[in-house]
Write a structure and sequence with these properties.
- The protein has a five-stranded antiparallel sheet.
- The chain has two domains: 122 residues, Uridine Diphospho-n-acetylenolpyruvylglucosamine Reductase, domain 3; 106 residues, Enolase-like, domain 1, CATH 3.30.390.50.
- The chain is an alpha+beta fold.
- The longest helix has 19 residues.
- β8 and β9 form a beta hairpin.
- The protein is built from eleven helices and nine strands.
- The structure holds flavin-adenine dinucleotide and iron/sulfur cluster.
């Protein structure tokens, strides 16, 4: 709003909806994270730390302690891209002003997407928390004028296609009420890792990040989840990597193959080709650390 990017007619303060600030375990073992629970409270909650350490790590890799104390879970999901041109109202940007063009495609695109971009927008989603939520198969609970519904995390954010101004599949009259973590994803607690590669060691957004989660039993990967941040308009689930890993022995050669099959489909722009090799190495490193835990 300060930059003149958003000009809302009305602001609604939802901070006093106390019931949306709870973190609670439901009877079926689902851990419900209230949309208004703070990022720091979520990351440090004993049940999150014990059963979903990947999420805890990802949140703590983001922003600064002061920001995390103020930022809410719902707000983190809804944060907008950090594309420089989006915030510069003197420049064209299809996300800010549909039909005006994209300053980044022919401009300075070092932080931009290598997966799922369109000729209308190559922006990335900046969240760390969302990358872990994608790997953990979370569900977003929303409420609106037409009632409540659940959205699978993978379906929550969208690719830019022809309408980059639309970041998510949340409808205009809907509010996020919670984010639910399934019981089944506790199986990754022993072997998970969130790797964030950035220009500074702290207080910087990811150039590339990887959430790696392995369920290893009897020396074999029973299930695997790999998601990347900083590479697409939404958290990027590496389904092809997961297919290679499932049922395999957790060896470095398998990790390299898993990285290769996914990154083979990446497309770079003038200033961000480095992300393709960085992404490949980051997948291997995140999987190796997850295995060794
Ligand atoms: C300097 C800086 C550095 C940062 N670095 C990182 C980082 O490294 N990694 C990272 O992940 N994040 C980072 N962030 C983002 C920070 O985590 C977000 O600003 C924060 O998560 C937003 O939360 P909020 O509660 O303040 O949301 P707000 O800013 O209040 O809201 C953001 C948007 O979400 C909407 N919204 C909020 N709650 C709901 C709801 N329940 N339902 C529907 N819509 C809702 C609001 O209307 C608004 O459009 C950084 C932010 C700053 C300012
Ligand atoms: S990449 Fe997307 S957000 Fe950035 S200038 Fe292009 S249209 Fe706007």
């Amino acid at each position: 709003m300060r930059e003149g990017v958003e000009k809302p007619d009305v602001l609604v303060d939802i901070n006093r909806l106390d019931h949306l600030a709870r973190i609670e375990e439901l009877s079926d073992g689902v851990l419900r994270l209230g949309a208004l629970a703070k990022n720091s409270e979520t990351a440090n909650h004993p049940l999150v730390r014990e059963h979903y350490p990947l999420l805890s790590e990802a949140i703590l890799a983001g922003a600064s302690a002061q920001l995390r104390n103020s930022a809410t879970n719902g707000g983190n999901l809804m944060q907008r891209t950090r594309c420089y041109y989006f915030y510069d109202t003197a420049m064209p940007c299809n996300k800010r002003e549909p039909g005006s063009g994209c300053g980044a495609i022919e401009g300075f695109n070092r932080i931009h997407a290598i997966f799922g971009a369109s000729d209308k927008c190559i922006a990335t989603h900046p969240s760390d928390m969302c990358v872990a939520l994608s790997a953990l198969d979370a569900t977003v609970q929303v409420a609106g004028l037409q009632g409540s519904r659940s959205i699978q995390f993978e379906e929550f954010h969208r690719l830019p296609k022809e309408t980059p101004q639309v970041d998510t599949n949340l409808r205009h009259d809907e509010l996020i009420t919670s984010i639910d973590l399934p019981l089944s994803s506790r199986a990754y607690a022993d072997h998970s890792y969130y790797l964030k590669v950035r220009d500074r060691a702290s207080y910087a957004f990811a150039l590339v990040s990887v959430a790696a989660a392995l369920d290893i039993q009897g020396g074999v990967i029973r299930r695997a989840r790999v998601a990347m941040g900083g590479v697409a308009h939404k958290p990027w689930r590496c389904k092809q990597s997961e297919a290679i890993l499932t049922g395999a022995k957790p060896d470095i050669s398998v990790f390299m193959e898993a990285a290769e099959v996914e990154m083979r489909h990446a497309r770079g722009y003038e200033h961000n080709y480095f992300k393709i090799e960085l992404g490949r190495r980051s997948i291997v490193r995140a999987l190796s650390i997850a295995r060794n835990r």
